[in-house]
Design a protein that fits this description.
The complex is a heterodimer of chains A (about 110) and B (about 180).
Chain A: E1 3-8, E2 11-16, E3 20-21, H1 26-37, E4 43-47, E5 53-54, H2 56-69, E6 74-78, H3 82-90, E7 99-100, H4 103-108
Parallel strand pairs in A: 2-4, 3-5, 4-6, 6-7
Antiparallel strand pairs in A: 1-2
Chain B: E1 34-41, H1 44-58, H2 64-85, E2 93-101, E3 104-111, H3 142-149, E4 151-158, E5 161-169, H4 173-178
Antiparallel strand pairs in B: 1-2, 2-3, 3-5, 4-5
Helix pairs in contact in B: 1-2, 2-3
Classes of the chains: A alpha/beta (about 110), B alpha+beta (about 180).
Chain lengths: ~110, ~180
């Protein structure tokens, strides 16, 4: 499960270097996200531009990663590809996350 | 959102002799030749490979957008079979049959695992997302997506196996569903 974390502004940009977040790697994703974000900046942006597919396990893992941040911390999403965007809209999870066109756009928006 | 009635209802499944026909658990898909026929084992990696094969095949016949929607539904069905019908045992067999049917695609996905609890597919209701972050659901999206994106979803338990049949429209119905 290849994730890279980069400090950006006052936040953390986590880039998912995987084509899929699905049942095969959902647990590894959750674990790795925890490692990268525990004790880190309040604002996390998850860059999904390389991810072409997310199933319900992947969606659940992304939600779990956000919940694991804890109180006062926020996770935004960036770079949703069409099939991934479809899943978020269908489940109405696009109302739960702030979604940006790409990582740059995510950091042009001042943190709320 | 009322569904248009299917112009090509799935006929009753034909139960052939499993001793002579390994595909006997499959519902008969219309009268046309199958667009895709796959067999896979009950592991997440096998599911990934099957989805790749399926989407590659269907890309020759339908739009990328439709292929994407198919992948969403079939992934959920296969994940459910691996996790629940076979309870993560890796030595199960899953069969997928896809046919063109009227204005869409018809699917029959079968396995020889445990029966669905209660003999019926789960309802898969839309989760309540108007909750505090720490109360957000992390699961239960799969059946909701399957129900929303398919029509004529039918589950049958036959002999020692399961068969899930459904249709997916191809003509823009899905975009209407999405905005419902």
């Amino acid at each position: 499960m290849n994730l890279t974390a980069t400090a950006r502004d006052a936040g953390l940009l986590v880039t998912v270097n995987e084509a899929r977040i699905d049942a095969a790697i959902a647990v590894a994703f959750k674990d790795r996200m925890r490692e990268l974000t525990d004790g880190g900046p309040d604002r996390v942006v998850l860059d999904l531009a390389q991810v072409g597919f997310v199933d319900s396990s992947g969606l659940g893992a992304i939600v779990a990663a956000m919940k694991a941040l804890g109180q006062g911390r926020k996770m935004d999403l960036a770079g949703l590809t069409p099939n991934v965007d479809k899943v978020f809209r269908l489940t109405r999870m696009d109302s739960v996350f702030a979604i940006h066109a790409d990582a740059d756009a995510a950091f042009r928006v001042p943190a709320a | 959102m009322p569904m248009r009635p299917s112009v090509c209802p799935l006929p009753e499944p034909v139960l052939l002799d499993p001793a002579t026909d390994p595909m006997s658990m499959l519902c008969q898909i219309c009268s046309q030749d199958a667009l895709a026929r796959l067999r896979l084992g009950s592991t997440p990696d096998a599911v990934r490979q099957a989805l790749q094969d399926l989407t590659q095949t269907l890309s020759q016949h339908v739009s990328p957008d439709a292929v994407g929607t198919v992948e969403i539904v079939v992934a959920e069905v296969l994940n459910n079979i691996v996790e629940h019908a076979y309870e993560e045992a890796p030595d199960g067999q899953i069969d997928i049959l896809v046919g063109a049917c009227g204005d869409g695609l018809a699917f029959a996905i079968s396995d020889r695992g445990c029966a669905m609890p209660g003999g019926e597919v789960p309802e898969g209701r839309q989760a309540d997302l108007d909750v505090e972050t720490d109360a957000l659901p992390e699961g239960g999206f799969g059946w909701f997506m399957i129900h929303t994106l398919t029509r004529n979803l039918t589950y049958r338990r036959e002999r020692d196996g399961n068969c899930l049949c459904f249709e997916m429209p191809l003509d823009g119905d899905e975009s209407r569903l999405m905005s419902a």
